[in-house]
Automatic annotation (TrEMBL):
<dbReference type="InterPro" id="IPR000160">
    <property type="entry name" value="GGDEF_dom"/>
</dbReference>
<feature type="transmembrane region" description="Helical">
    <location>
        <begin position="210"/>
        <end position="234"/>
    </location>
</feature>
<feature type="transmembrane region" description="Helical">
    <location>
        <begin position="185"/>
        <end position="203"/>
    </location>
</feature>
<dbReference type="InterPro" id="IPR001633">
    <property type="entry name" value="EAL_dom"/>
</dbReference>
<keyword id="KW-0812">Transmembrane</keyword>
<feature type="transmembrane region" description="Helical">
    <location>
        <begin position="141"/>
        <end position="165"/>
    </location>
</feature>
<keyword id="KW-1133">Transmembrane helix</keyword>
<dbReference type="Pfam" id="PF00990">
    <property type="entry name" value="GGDEF"/>
</dbReference>
<dbReference type="InterPro" id="IPR043128">
    <property type="entry name" value="Rev_trsase/Diguanyl_cyclase"/>
</dbReference>
<feature type="transmembrane region" description="Helical">
    <location>
        <begin position="7"/>
        <end position="29"/>
    </location>
</feature>
<protein>
    <submittedName>
        <fullName>Diguanylate cyclase/phosphodiesterase</fullName>
    </submittedName>
</protein>
<feature type="transmembrane region" description="Helical">
    <location>
        <begin position="35"/>
        <end position="57"/>
    </location>
</feature>
<feature type="transmembrane region" description="Helical">
    <location>
        <begin position="240"/>
        <end position="263"/>
    </location>
</feature>
<feature type="transmembrane region" description="Helical">
    <location>
        <begin position="69"/>
        <end position="90"/>
    </location>
</feature>
<dbReference type="InterPro" id="IPR052155">
    <property type="entry name" value="Biofilm_reg_signaling"/>
</dbReference>
<feature type="domain" description="GGDEF">
    <location>
        <begin position="379"/>
        <end position="511"/>
    </location>
</feature>
<feature type="transmembrane region" description="Helical">
    <location>
        <begin position="284"/>
        <end position="303"/>
    </location>
</feature>
């Protein structure tokens, strides 16, 4: 680009020197020789324009290529006319031809090609947003507008020139009509081109203002040269000075410089913006000249009592063109109004609907809920809060695209499961809310059907995936709180109660659900506590003995996290685990426990050395990059052997997570970390982990411990014995949980259990208390 501008500056200097030499020689030489020299100079400049535009056009691309080639090709006939003119000068001198053949009028057709070249000049919309607006502002519609406006301006100027100069000259002199038509048409043609350049510069953003300015200046100078010939002919003159050809050469050299200016291939970074005055100018510019011409003709009609045929035909033609222009403007305005209305409707829809699922958003749902509350006495309704289970895990393991797919699938299933008058909304993330009208006889049954619809497996990332959702239901009637926030809070509490009961369930709100631990603020406080903010309580690790059932000695410890909160006092371990799971904080909580256990074991007295600690770890896909994946390095950092920690794996997330987590767990086992499978015989237990993971220990679910108090005790005992037999066959250590008395401990030891823990051996205690409670010889 810099080299291109340097070339233009050098060429401009050369053109000035060329014109200076030609002008001086034309003035000093005799008239005939001067006319011949200036005519040769103009013809050479015209030929140079053709060569320059074709050469630069072949190297350019896109619109920059088109305008150069079109104008270059349009100039070729002008070269032929210049050659004829040069022959006339060498044969007759500077004498103006007395008769011009009618065939010369065909030369006027090239102005249509010139106009096409100017309209192809690279431009962009004045505003960034205009490119995609309306009826193709960058297409043929825009070019038609430019052409019509150019015709209005030029036609008006022609009428003014006809009424003031040309018509009186024709009346007073005998002028060759073909010559007059040819010269007049040429002037009008250049006027059209100048108007097109002016309108293009006014209504559009040229990518090179310099090139367009040189193009317009060249057309203006060429028009001036032709106007000199026309004025001489109209005045009855027989000769013309060489200055006319010098002026023509100047015009061609300006076009040459325009062809040398480099034009960027992308829109300009800084755009002009149209203010009110510019907008008014855009609308009024084509009609100012028409108004002047109309006033002039009316004045002539009043003064002379008549208007000649040329003026009538010209005025009617201009009015028809203006009418066509206004019809196009009317069509554009109609499309504009339709586009504005469509944009308003789209903005309203976007303001009230979720962009991903198309469901109502929080704002629209709040409006519908307020309306339903206003009529709840006569028309009871139900509010359902729905939250997808383990949605964060889907996002973290399968990617956000899979998460979005799950959300859209859930939205479609919810739509299919409700009536047309019901309202479904996505409140954010994986949370949905549903307003069930009074047409549902049994809202709880309707929610059960919704839950069944949602639970159907779906394809995510090319694999079938189970879908779970926890639902909270509130039935609103005349006795319900009138505030929407209170109703939403009750539905939220019911939904989280469903999650605490095992996920995938439905809970109807009842007053006893409103406890401190169920409040949303509690989950937020847990997040702050995990970051070490003591204003929200402290999280410590307590230890519960794991006893050898054969000897009674303490063989290991269960590491149990405890949260001391001002509202919850000492939160039970199960409640803390549920809160962490609901808030998506399970992995940070496990990381904190692992770090505390390593620190405690490294600092404790020698009696706790050699007793491993069980740390509960969920089997999840997203353990890579967490403290669980780095537990071996963590132990090495504290100079502790790998056997210090036993990872207690829970299968609550399903077999698919187990398969995904298996490579990491095998890698840890290869570094000496022992794996224990928790909850064997419970609701989420499968035998897949026995086959997939290198486990060394299984921990029986508490339902297999207190066999006598469970329904079907005989069958439960046989299941327990079968599990113990399988474990013995695989040489696995068996630990049991929930031991409440000495009789249970003795029975489980006799059945083949090796280790046991539970209330019988004392509650989890802080490190110092647990250390003192351990016997020295155990």
């Amino acid at each position: 680009m810099v080299d291109g501008h340097r070339t233009v500056r050098v060429a401009a200097g050369g053109c000035l020197a060329y014109l200076a030499v030609v002008a001086v020689c034309a003035l000093l030489l005799p008239s005939t020789a001067g006319a011949q020299l200036s005519s040769c100079a103009a013809a050479a400049a015209c030929l140079a324009v053709v060569v320059c535009l074709v050469w630069t056009g072949r190297r350019a691309q896109g619109a920059d290529r088109r305008w150069r080639l079109i104008i270059g090709i349009a100039t070729i006939p002008t070269v032929l006319v210049s050659a004829w003119h040069l022959r006339w000068i060498f044969g007759h001198g500077a004498v103006v031809p007395a008769h011009v053949p009618w065939a010369a009028a065909a030369f006027l057709l090239i102005f249509a090609v010139y106009l096409a070249g100017i309209l192809a000049f690279p431009t962009d919309p004045l505003e960034v947003g205009d490119a995609g607006f309306g009826v193709g502002r960058d297409g043929y519609y825009w070019y038609a507008i430019i052409a019509l406006d150019s015709l209005v301006v030029v036609g008006s100027v022609f009428l003014i020139a006809w009424a003031t100069i040309m018509e009186p000259a024709i009346r007073s002199h005998h002028i060759d009509t073909p010559g007059l038509v040819s010269n007049t048409g040429t002037v009008v043609g250049y006027l059209i081109l100048m108007a097109a350049v002016l309108l293009l510069a006014t209504f559009r953003q040229p990518r090179s203002g310099l090139a367009l300015a040189l193009l317009g200046a060249g057309m203006s100078v060429m028009m001036l040269s032709t106007a000199l010939y026309l004025s001489v002919a109209a005045a009855g003159g027989v000769g013309i000075a060489p200055a006319a050809d010098v002026i023509a050469a100047t015009g061609w050299l300006l076009l040459l410089l325009a062809g040398l200016v480099p034009i960027p291939g992308s829109p300009a970074a800084v755009r002009r913006r149209g203010g009110p005055r510019v907008l008014w100018l855009r609308s009024a510019l084509p009609y100012l000249a028409l108004g002047v011409a109309g006033v002039l003709l009316v004045s002539q009609l009043i003064a002379d009592g008549a208007v000649d045929r040329v003026e009538w035909v010209g005025l009617i033609g201009l009015l028809l063109i203006a009418l066509a222009r206004q019809l196009m403007t009317l069509g554009e305005n109609t499309v504009l109004l339709a586009s504005v209305e469509a944009s308003r409707q789209e903005l309203r829809y976007q303001a009230l609907h979720d962009p991903l699922t198309g469901l109502a958003n929080r704002a629209l749902f709040a409006d519908r809920l307020q309306h339903a509350l206003a009529f709840r006495e006569s028309r009871p309704f139900a509010l359902v809060y729905c939250d997808l289970d383990d949605f964060k895990r889907v996002n973290d393991t399968l990617g956000h695209a899979a998460g979005d797919s799950l959300l859209t699938t859930t939205a479609a299933r919810l739509r299919a499961g409700v009536r047309p008058g019901d309202t479904i909304a996505r409140l954010g993330g994986d949370e949905f809310a549903i307003l069930l009208g009074d047409g549902h006889g049994d809202p709880e049954a309707a929610c059960q059907r919704l839950a069944e619809t949602i639970r159907a497996p779906t394809m995510l990332a090319g694999h079938p995936q189970p879908v779970g959702a926890s639902l909270g239901l509130v039935i609103a009637d005349a006795h319900s709180p009138p505030a929407a926030d209170a109703l939403l809070r009750e539905a939220d509490l019911a939904m989280y109660a469903a999650k605490r009961e095992g996920k995938g369930g439905l809970v109807v709100y009842r007053p006893d659900l409103s406890t401190h631990e169920s409040a949303p603020q509690t989950r937020a406080a847990l997040a702050y506590a995990l970051r070490g903010d003591e204003r929200y309580g402290t999280i410590t690790v307590h230890y519960q003995p794991v006893v050898d059932l054969r000897t009674g000695g303490v063989s290991a410890l269960d590491a149990v996290p405890h949260w001391s909160h001002r509202l919850l006092a000492q939160s039970p371990p199960d409640l803390l685990a549920h809160l962490a799971d609901e808030a998506g904080l399970t992995v940070p909580l496990v990381g904190l426990v692992l770090r505390r256990v390593c620190r405690d074991v490294a600092a404790q007295n020698p009696r706790l050395r050699g007793r491993p600690a069980f740390v509960s770890v969920p089997v999840r896909r997203d353990l890579e990059g967490t403290s669980v994946a780095e537990v071996a390095d963590l132990l090495a950092h504290h100079d502790l052997p790998p056997q210090t920690i036993i990872l207690r794996l829970s299968e609550t997330c399903g077999v698919s997570d187990l398969d995904a987590a298996a490579p990491l767990l095998r890698r840890l086992a290869g570094r000496g970390i022992r794996l224990a499978l928790d909850g064997v015989g419970g609701r989420a237990s499968t035998f897949a982990a026995w086959r997939t993971l290198p486990i060394e220990i299984i921990r029986l679910d508490h339902t297999l411990t207190d066999v006598d108090s469970s329904p079907g005790a005989h069958r439960t005992r046989r299941i327990r014995d079968a599990v113990l037999a399988a474990a013995a066959h695989l040489d696995l250590t068996v630990a049991t949980t929930g031991i409440g008395n000495h009789a249970q401990a003795r029975e489980l030891a006799a059945a083949g259990c090796h280790l046991g823990t539970g209330p019988y051996y004392g509650p989890p205690r802080p490190l110092d208390e647990a250390s003192q409670a351990l016997p020295r010889g155990s």
